[in-house]
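User: Second chain of the day. Same drill as before.
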Amino acid sequence: MYLKRIALAVLMLLIFTGISSAADEFQYEEIWVHQGVFDLADGDRASAEKYTVKVHEINKEDEGYSATLLLYIDGEFRKSFFADDSLNNEYFHEKDLEVKTLSIGPATVTLELYLHEYELVWIPSESQRLAVEETVETDNAVIKLLNISDGVATLEVTTNDKTRVDEYEINDYKKYSNEIMARVTFIDMDDQEINLQVYHPGKPEFKVQINDLEEEYSPNHPASFEIYLKNTGTIPARGITITTSASNGQIEPESYDLAMLDTLKIHRIPISLTLPETPVEENINIDVSVDGYDYRGNNYQNTTTAHTTVQPYISIEKTIDTHLMEDEDRTRRRIIVDMVVCNNASIGQEVTIHDPLPLAFKPLVIDSTDWTMFLGAGRSETIQYKAMPMVAGTYNLGPAVASWYSQGETYSVLSDGAAVTIDVEGALLEIEKEASLSDILTGEEVDVTVTITNSGTVDVEASLAEKIPEGFRFASGENTWEGTLEVGEKKQLSYTMLAQEEVILDLPPAIVSYTDEDGLERE
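Assistant: Same format as last time:
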């Protein structure tokens, strides 16, 4: 008795397992999978896996054209068959290959190939609870639950203006077109409700990305990137073509074919990019398009775009080393400038380099910061020089400029980086002096203003004693001063002179005496 119960339990388990398995199997169907459309002339071939169809000859008939086609399997000839674009436009081989003739012209036969497969077709949408007299609308059908009686649900399904009424027991399913299938997964007799599952044919979907493309490249330097392709849909994609193009430069490969990409599978394609030689910076657009089909021949596409920049074929890099500016010995303070000039063109170029220095900096050993040199194709040259600051203050050192002449045009590029602000420690006084009149008559008064600004980096003890020019005498105001000027501080003096004769005023310079950072008296 015990053994019989075990056997019965096993039998029931198998039955339930079989029901569950059958419930999944109906989503699979024997289908004809589209392999592509082919335009073939005499002697041309079209292939789908192990099958090859070859055009043997095209014949003119009383009405239109016909063709004799040859069938090869694994490269071996098997048979020939006749085709036209009317009654004999479909040929089947052992229920595994379908050759459909779309059109025949005087020189071309257009064929469409299909292979027979057993594959997942129907994909479920979200299950819905449906009561008697309630309606569910999908993209291409209206489903209404009419009634429930004796464990049977009656559904009214309208598709393409056609209505059918069908009875369902639990786990029954029915197709209403190539676009929709319905299944009842549960019947609630008490609440007069059902669980309705609607299925639609699956679709492939392409996700495409451009990976590993750098933001910028130098001409004639290797460039490459990767195309990332993923099928994020619910069924395989077939007959896929990936096309790549660049707004300038050469792409390899421009086109890539992929027979199939299964659901959630990823395919990566390495691409090489040959960039143009350009005297000016140029933006390059990379476009990738993906084109493929589902098993019925429906077309699916996606595109993506990325951008990179090609730098001019002449480049200059500049670095400024300022560590010696901190030396305790002020006579040793200086900057060290390094520049590397490159010619990435396929021919030599004569290049002029100009590196502007603030007037307060004196180049050492060299007379100027201008150079002219010839750079061979793919060659580079290094320039190094030193410069010493002569006057305290804050100075901005900008980029260097490389210029060259090519095909009737003059081009120039600035160096990368090297924008540096340098504080030169020390005393620096700036003096401005102005008068209210220049042509003066006897007895007229002239107002004189002197402004002293401490533009250095240290406080300064300074003094000023203004000399009164000949033909004038001091009248009023302040023409002498002595004191401390802090960094950034200004001191303004104003005084009035009386003209003792008619003159054209020529103001003598204001002379300020001060003690510098080394304790030396300066003017």
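The two ends are 124 Å apart (CA to CA).

User: Great, on to the next one.
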